[in-house]
Amino acid sequence: MRSLWTERLRPALTPRWVTITPYGLLILTACFVIGMLAIFFTNNLFYFLVAMLLGFVSISGVLSEISIRGLDMRRSVPANVHALSPVFVTIEVTNLKKRFPSFCLHVRDEALAGEAFLLHIGPREVGRQRYQAVFPKRGSYTFGSASISTAFPFGFFRKWAVFQGNDPVLILPIVRDLQFLFRSQALGSGDFRTAFRGEGANLYSVREYRWGDSSRLIHWKSTARQMEVMIKELEREVSGKVTLELAGGFGVHLEPAVSLAASLANLLTQRQIHYRLRSASWTTATDGGAKHLDAALRLLALYDDLPLAQAEPPQKEEHILLLAPAGARGRPGRQLLELGPDWDWLLDPQTERPRQVLG
Amino acid sequence: MIRVSPDVESAYRLAVFSTVASGFLAMLFTEEFSAPFWALVPLCVACSLLLRSGRFQLPRALALLAAAMLLGWIASDLFLLSSGVSTVRYLGRLALYVQLLAIFLPESDWNFRLLGAISFIHLLSAASLTTNMSYLAASILYIVSATWLLILQQVKVGIQRSGVHGDNQWRTLVAGPMIARMTLLATVVFVLTAGLFFGIPRYGAGYFFSRGEEAPVVSGFSEEVRLGSLGELKQSDEIVMRVIVAGLEPPMNQGLYWRGVSLDVYDGLGWKRGRGAVRRLTADEQGFQDRSYDVSVGQELQACQTEVVQQFFLNHPNTAVIFAAPRAIAVTGKFSKLTVDENTSVRVEFPAFSSYYYSVRSAMRCVTRLQLREASGRYNARVAAMGLQLPPDVQAIRELAQRVTKGKTTAYDKAVAIENYLVDNFTYSLDMTGLDLQKPLDDFIFRRRSGHCEFFASAMAIMLRSVGVPARIANGYQQGEWNELGHYYLVRSRDAHSWVEVYFQGFGWIEFDPTPSSGRSTYQSVSLLSAMMLSYDTVRLLWKRSVIEYHLLDQVEHLRRIAAFMRFMRKIARQLFEDVQQEIHEIASGRRSVSEVARELLSILLLCCLAVPGILWAKRAGYRLGRRVSRGSSIRFYMRLTDLLRAHGYLRLPGQTPMELAFRVTASEGPALDAVEEITRYYYRVRFRDAPLTDEEQARVQTLLRQVAARLGK
Question: Does domain B224-520 have CATH number 3.40.50.11740?
Answer without folding.
Answer: no
